[in-house]
């Protein structure tokens, strides 16, 4: 048992926060599967897939638990570490490698090899890459999320500006953002995101020609000139009043400010399209992220993983197939929640909200950057976010912060190589 696994189990002080792995009840006449995720907005699609599953398995009870994201992985680690936990559950990029590396989730490759109904070729490459460990798939792709530029048409119309399009660059953000900002009215031109790395500087650093982590996952790129350029651009937008300050972003989430008409342009993941449209209606528009030296945006998404200790692995696999198969993807697409992981179902999602140009997000897959991950992503992300936010709050220079991130991150990455 590795040091990291020991650490996980030593951290366990409570057992059973999430219901234990599926089991037989009523003398073996009824089987149960426990399912865990964090976003109830997708409950309709999840329930529809479970209904399809129950048509084939009427004797199986599927219990679904929704836990707010802030507590989700803490509870998941506790329950799995205690030998229980859900049979099937959501996994994200930052936590994936840790769970896969230490056997907390099952390798799905043996199931795939024996099952002609499941083909990895059906899914976006970015999703297969994200949830593969040593070339084996450990979480079945469910939906993709990628970053685009949402904007408020009313604010653009009032300023007499043309809407953003694929020709826009960083210079347009600064130029038009300055025109759109109105301090007297409390309106900002753009969200220079600091409280969200995925929607913020994780896009700007590769657009500047840099990277957060190299392809070999051995070195950080946070101390590069490109990272400095991206974060300096962010700081300039804040200093000029084009973007809310970091303190304001902490106190009032930019997502809420955008929906309240206080921000004209807001980079955000595709999952928020439905929520934004329900709030802003015809005032909402969407465009590709403005380009730096390079165009593109960060690609991420959610996968369904199987508990490494589940006692119902064949049933759990069949449920995962129903959730992530053609019908499951159809349910996601038609709900408007986000881009289904199966590439062939993209058009259904685009058609779910014809008032918006959702094709922007599909096209962005072609020029996307991979979400940065390693075995211990959460460890260095905590350092990264604390250092960078500290710089924006004035506690240190940006160069010092980025140098600190790179140094600490390289130590973590080196330890990962030693422990392999």
Automatic annotation (TrEMBL):
InterPro entries attached to this UniProt entry: Bact_solute-bd_prot1 (IPR050490), SBP (IPR006059)
Any one annotated GO CC term: cell envelope
Compartments in which it is found: Cell envelope
Keyword Cytoplasm: no
Protein's UniProt keywords contain Kinase: no
Gene3D superfamilies: Periplasmic binding protein-like II (3.40.190.10)
Domain of life: Bacteria
Keywords attached to this entry: Signal, Transport
Family, per entry: Belongs to the bacterial solute-binding protein 1 family.
Protein name as annotated: Cyclodextrin-binding protein
């Amino acid at each position: 048992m590795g040091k990291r696994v020991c650490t996980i189990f030593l951290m366990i002080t409570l057992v059973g926060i999430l219901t234990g792995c599926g089991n037989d009840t009523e003398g073996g006449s009824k089987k149960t599967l426990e399912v865990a995720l964090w976003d109830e907005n997708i409950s309709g699609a999840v329930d529809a897939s479970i209904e399809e599953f129950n048509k084939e398995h009427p004797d199986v009870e599927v219990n679904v638990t929704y836990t707010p994201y802030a507590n989700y992985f803490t509870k998941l680690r506790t329950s799995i570490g205690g030998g229980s936990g859900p049979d099937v559950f959501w996994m994200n990029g930052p936590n994936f490698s840790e769970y896969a590396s230490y056997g907390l989730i099952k390798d799905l490759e043996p199931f795939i090899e024996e099952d002609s109904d499941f083909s990895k070729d059906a899914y976006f490459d970015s999703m297969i890459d994200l949830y593969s460990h040593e070339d084996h798939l450990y979480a079945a792709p469910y939906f993709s999320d990628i970053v685009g530029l949402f904007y408020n048409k009313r604010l653009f119309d009032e300023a007499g500006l043309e809407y953003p399009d694929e020709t826009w660059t960083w210079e347009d953000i600064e130029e038009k953002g300055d025109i759109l900002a109105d301090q007297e009215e409390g309106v900002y031109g753009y969200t220079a995101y600091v409280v969200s790395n995925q929607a913020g500087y994780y896009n700007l650093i590769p657009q500047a020609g840099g990277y957060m982590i190299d392809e070999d996952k051995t070195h950080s790129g946070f101390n590069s000139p490109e990272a400095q350029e991206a974060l300096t651009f962010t700081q300039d937008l804040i200093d000029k009043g084009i973007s809310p300050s970091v303190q304001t972003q902490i106190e009032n989430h930019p997502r809420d400010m955008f929906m309240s008409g206080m921000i004209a342009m807001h980079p955000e993941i595709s999952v928020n399209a439905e929520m934004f449209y329900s709030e802003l209606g015809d005032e909402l528009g969407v465009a590709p992220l403005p380009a730096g030296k390079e165009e593109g945006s960060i690609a991420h998404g959610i996968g369904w993983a199987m508990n490494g200790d589940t006692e119902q692995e064949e049933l759990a696999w069949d449920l995962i197939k129903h959730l992530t198969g053609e019908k499951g993807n159809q349910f996601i697409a038609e709900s408007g929640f986000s881009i289904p992981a199966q590439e062939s179902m993209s058009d259904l999602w685009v058609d779910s909200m014809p008032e918006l140009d959702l094709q922007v997000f599909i096209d962005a897959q072609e020029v996307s950057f991979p979400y940065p991950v390693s075995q211990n992503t959460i460890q260095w992300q905590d350092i990264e976010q604390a250092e960078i936010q500290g710089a924006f709050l004035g506690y240190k220079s940006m160069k010092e912060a980025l140098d600190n991130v790179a140094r600490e991150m390289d130590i973590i990455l080196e330890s990962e190589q030693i422990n392999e």
